[in-house]
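PROTEIN DESIGN WORKSHEET
SECTION A - STRUCTURE
LENGTH: 98
TOKENS:
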């Protein structure tokens, strides 16, 4: 048997699965904005399908642009507001422990 399939984890501490060693500021910013980007599009998609069901069930028609304005944008901003301090704190904690 070979050991090639064995997973290797970097040594050191982790916070919520994120390694503290080698965690840079740029990668933290990238992860925060990627999370907000994904949340915006996922919540907007769900809101559009919700409005589609609402409009098809005989209720008064609602503009689909409202899903961007009232669901997608606030959800994306909320995730960004939460994710930026979390990833900044992870980066800062890794810098302090060096």
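SECTION B - SEQUENCE
RESIDUE ASSIGNMENT:
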């Amino acid at each position: 048997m070979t050991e090639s399939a064995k997973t290797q984890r970097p040594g050191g501490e982790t916070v919520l699965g994120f390694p503290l060693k080698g965690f840079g500021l740029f990668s933290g910013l990238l992860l925060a904005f990627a999370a907000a980007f994904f949340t915006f599009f996922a919540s907007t998609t769900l809101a559009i399908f919700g409005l589609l069901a609402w409009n098809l069930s005989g209720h008064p028609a609602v503009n689909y642009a409202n899903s961007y304005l009232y669901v997608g944008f606030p959800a994306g901003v909320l995730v960004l507001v939460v994710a930026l301090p979390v990833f900044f704190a992870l980066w800062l904690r890794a810098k302090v422990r060096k």
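SECTION C - NOTES
The first strand starts at residue 14 and ends at 15.
Residues 41-98 form one domain.
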